[in-house]
Amino acid sequence: MRFSVLFAAFAASLAASLMFFNSTSADAQADLDRCKFVGDLRKADEGIAACDRAINDTKTTGQDRAAALSSRCGWWWAKKDSDKALSDCNESIRVYRGYAPAYLNRGNVYLSKSDFDHAFADFNEALRLDPKNAWAYAERGNLYKNKGDFDHALADLNEAIRLDPAYALAYFSRGDLYKGKGDIAHAMADMNETIRLDPNYAPAYFTHGRLSYMLGNGPAAVEDFSKSVRLDAEDANSYFNRGVAYYVVGGHTADAMADFKKTAELNPKDAYAALWRDLAERRNNAPSHLAEAAKQVDMTVWPAPVIRQFLGEFTAEQTFGAAFDTDPAIKTAQTCEANFYGGEFALLKKNKKEAQRLLKLAADDCPPSFIESTAALAELIPLK
Description:
Elements: H1 14-18, H2 26-35, H3 44-56, H4 62-78, H5 82-95, H6 100-112, H7 116-129, H8 134-146, H9 150-163, H10 168-180, H11 184-197, H12 202-214, H13 218-231, H14 236-249, H15 253-266, H16 271-283, H17 290-294, H18 304-310, H19 316-322, H20 328-348, H21 352-365, H22 371-380
């Protein structure tokens, strides 16, 4: 998964922010309204400009100014300017130390800086100030999730949903947590609820697609990824995963080729997009672009040995030798991929027996969350 749900969670602070915007002139109130951070990057420049006017207006009250600074912090964070965001959140807290959303916003800024201790402290302070803040529980739950603390993460996300049963992003986070633990049934239920509450949230369709794919339902995965693409046409991950689903479904190699080509255009350094595009091209008897793509890929790290094997520079033995790593998890992952892509390579060479052996190893040993796991199972069916 290549997407963080924390970005859109800022919108959940909107209701909490309203109490701090006091009655004032119509123009000033309009600026305060436009200033509020709602998570839509298309409105970022307008929002920042409105916040600027509100903050610099000498008639703006202290609490309104704190809220405007907090919102501008959110806009800067959304634009990935964490230094400006941190400065605004710090000033918001200096102006009014009792404003919980500023701590939540600053916590997210700290997360973007990988400062987990300060982020955790800010989320805790937000909950101390506002113990019924669903957004604060969701943020702290996400932090626990990223730290691998399943129990505390689940407890916080459950509480966020209890406090706000219509909180789509809390369901999304909990579903992603369940997915990471291999609880596909609960993960799917939470993704369904996320989509019901927010039918325009692209990451939910993407994750729903990954779950459909893991369950072996290729057509459903294609449909989910197509919805994700329609909502976010610049997300390379959705194109790539839809391409894999097309490839696995069978009879859609031209569609798979198109998706892998688009992935490569959006992210030319993606080694896996280069590999899968080559697989689809060879299966479709189309010219290969792997040699050209390899020029933009980091050929000093995995899966470069697999690419070299496909280019004829490495033998299968060399590829498997390169899959060794002292970290057991990395070794498992790389061995899984060496088996899968080795099986695909054997298929291309019409060596059915070797392909069957390697794909069986991949199907048995690849982690279920790996795209290669489901693909190996699908590839084995016609070989039996």
